[in-house]
């Protein structure tokens, strides 16, 4: 059900992102950059297809606790139960979100959402591939209380969809709503790396939790967006594993066994004494921020745009058809999408492995079409078309096999 809701929402996401782009362009304010936007949305595609494969982890865990440990059974036909669940899910999200910023391991599964140095609607889709492995734990009290799994799934989907629209700089403060709801202004603060804004405003729908628990800060000056240590990459795969790799590196380098364990559970700014001690968040300004950028040939950008459109289409089809596909077919499709995110980053950053990996991905994509078309009246046409498209795209991207690394990267000033 969650996958279907998201699939239905995808066209609206794309339309709203396009509308925000047009508004920004008319205002002469370039709040979208091509490579950052594709990277953010590719992270979202990856999260969705991995979620299809691993749904049994979160939803299955919740259902297990509900079946074996619930103390009551709340009816989906009771409006009051839905109202309580609305606040219960949002409180669970607040606690999860707090933990995702204050416990290093959880931060490693959430940091992706904050890595963009822009703040726009595409940032809302920039989600970690591993969130689903950890977030469900924080909602288990709702299973014990007795909220049925499908009720829980519907409400968590609503909570997620609400948070899409607050990722924008185009909406100012909203009067009395600022006292109750999480708004674009409140969430801009949450994405800021200014010391005054760090680790504030964890709310999903209701800002009440931050006001109650002392984590609220109002927006005064527009924040500087990103992470304290910038990612400096447009590779969605690397974005998702970079901080996990960093924690492994710290754990290996520090000498004391206690510190090797603490690097995973202490706040992100904590560092063992033999690695330099705690990190201080520096003062930053929009004028001084240097955003990561790459210089890419126009033809390769066009290839990337078409490839991304295909990735979105493939993701949407997987979300729609998941219930009718075998696990092997889902895994094959998910692999094609995930390889696409990796080759996107490698191509724009002129990595030597990117073109060969893209060739392999195109072959896998054509193979999947041939496999799915077996036994249908369109087998011959679909198979020939898939192979022809894969060969044509292979020739196109092959032109960049020996592209020099010197063409990338570069840094540009913040706008």
Give the tags.
single chain; 415 residues; mainly alpha; 2 domains; two-stranded antiparallel sheet; 2 strands
Give an overview of the whole structure:
The chain is mainly alpha-helical and 415 residues long. The protein folds into two domains: 212 residues, no CATH class; 113 residues. Helices cover 59% and strands 2% of the residues. It is built from 17 helices and two strands. It has a two-stranded antiparallel sheet. The longest helix has 25 residues. The radius of gyration is 22 Å and the shape is globular. The model has no long low-confidence stretch (mean pLDDT 91). Its main location: membrane. Keywords: Lipid metabolism, Membrane, Oxidoreductase, Transmembrane, Transmembrane helix. It is found in: Endomembrane system. It comes from Chondromyces apiculatus DSM 436.
Tell the overall outline: globular
Biggest sheet statistics = 2 strands, antiparallel
What is the domain tally?
Answer: 2
Order of helices and strands: HHHHHHHHHHHHHEHHHHE
- N- to C-terminal separation? 40 Å
Beta content? under 5%
Radius of gyration, whole Å:
22 Å
Q: In total, how many beta strands?
A: 2
Low-confidence stretches: none
The side-by-side strand order for the widest beta sheet comes to: 1-2
* Coarse structural class: mainly alpha
Task: Provide a count of the helices.
Answer: 17
Q: Which range best describes the helical content: under 10%, 10-25%, 25-40%, 40-55%, 55-70% or over 70%?
A: 55-70%
Mean pLDDT: 91
